[in-house]
Design brief:
Layout (H helix, E strand, L loop, with lengths): L2 E4 L5 H10 L9 H4 L7 E2 L2 E5 L2 E6 L2 E3 L2 E4 L9 E2 L5 H17 L4 E4 L13 H8 L3 E12 L8 H12 L3 E5 L3 H15 L7 H10 L3 E8 L2 E11 L2 E9 L1 H6 L1 H13 L5 E6 L1 E2 L4 E2 L1 H8 L4 E11 L1
Parallel strand pairs: 6-8, 13-14
Antiparallel strand pairs: 1-3, 2-5, 3-4, 4-7, 5-6, 8-17, 9-14, 9-17, 10-11, 11-12, 12-13, 15-16
Helix pairs in contact: 3-4, 5-9
Length: 310
């Protein structure tokens, strides 16, 4: 029998220890990361036990009669240990369904952890979703570069990087997010009328908690002209933010950053995930954005969203 318990703040250390030892989670599912925006969501994360042994976790939040896994994260599917097997997954989903119906939920919006973040193959949840009649409700396209065996960069990307280098732009890692955040915020407001997902205070706090969060800036004469924030997640380096001011765009600052990063990261990472280039659950593709990303030798990888009617 599987026991389902709703997460409480007292479970934080148990939760974080399980995430750290799991075969498919990243630090984004650590409560020290998840809870930075706890005030924006009604947390309804779940823990699954058998004979008081923790089997799996589900990061989740509730909105009315819908459970999201997780609305504030890029992904948030079932987190499992090395010992967890397909039979366990079917039992967990059966127990989850029973629990959620008793709690008056009607649907689950489920975003599984993409395969390239797994330490070991961990797609048992996709089979369970199929068995329980879930449907693919969205398919976002990201761009993934295999750093161990990359496709060639386009001539344009290489030429832009050489232009940046020839104009004296240097790439440096920094822990001061202030200058870059102003460039990022200005660009997002001008183009889309929105602010970054994280405030300056939030990203500074998270970077102080996790060395996995790193900012690389392009500087010209000591002035920041562009930058890239990456999240190191095991064998994957995920690009969280990219932005440059007008000088940085004109001189190819971002191209130089990525050329430098790809050379450095290949010693510790397998993949560079440039992130999504789609909106509206994948129905809109930003062709200009993905063209730039593909120029660094990346090709399509999908972030799926499932809808499970209970």
């Amino acid at each position: 029998m599987i026991e389902v318990r709703r997460y409480q703040s007292d479970d934080a250390s148990v939760w974080n220890d399980f995430v750290a030892k799991s075969r498919n989670a990243t630090f984004l599912l650590d409560r020290r990361y998840m809870d930075y925006h706890a005030n924006r969501f009604t947390d309804h994360s779940l823990l699954f036990f058998s004979d008081d042994v923790l089997l799996a976790l589900l990061p989740a939040n509730a909105e009315g009669d819908i459970l999201f896994s997780h609305g504030g994260l890029t992904y948030g599917g079932l987190v499992v240990s090395d010992k967890f097997r397909i039979g366990d997954t079917l039992d967990v989903f059966a127990a989850m369904r029973k629990y959620l119906l008793l709690e008056s939920f009607e649907r689950v919006i489920y975003k599984p952890i993409p395969w390239f973040y797994h330490r070991q193959p961990s797609e048992e949840d996709l089979y369970a979703l199929f068995r329980y009649g879930a449907r693919v409700a969205g398919r976002d396209v990201a761009t993934l570069t295999d750093l161990k065996s990359p496709l060639p960069m386009t001539t344009l990307r290489r030429r832009q990087a050489r232009k940046a280098l020839g104009n004296g732009i240097a790439v440096e890692r920094t822990s001061d997010f202030g200058s870059f955040w102003k460039i990022l915020d200005d660009n997002l407001m001008q183009r889309y009328g929105v602010h970054p997902v994280h405030t300056l205070e939030e990203i500074t706090l998270l970077a102080s908690r996790f060395d996995n969060i790193r900012l690389f800036e392009a500087r010209l004469g000591g002035e920041t002209v562009g930058g890239v924030v990456i999240y190191l997640c095991g064998e994957v380096a995920h690009v969280q933010y990219i932005s440059a001011n007008e000088t940085g765009k004109r001189l190819g600052a971002i191209d130089l950053i990525f050329c430098n990063l790809m050379e450095k990261l290949k010693t510790c990472c397998r993949y560079l995930d440039f992130g999504k280039s789609t909106e509206q659950f994948g129905h809109f593709l930003n062709k200009g954005l993905i063209f730039q990303k593909e120029g660094f030798g990346g090709r399509a990888a999908c972030y799926d969203t499932y809808e499970w009617t209970l």
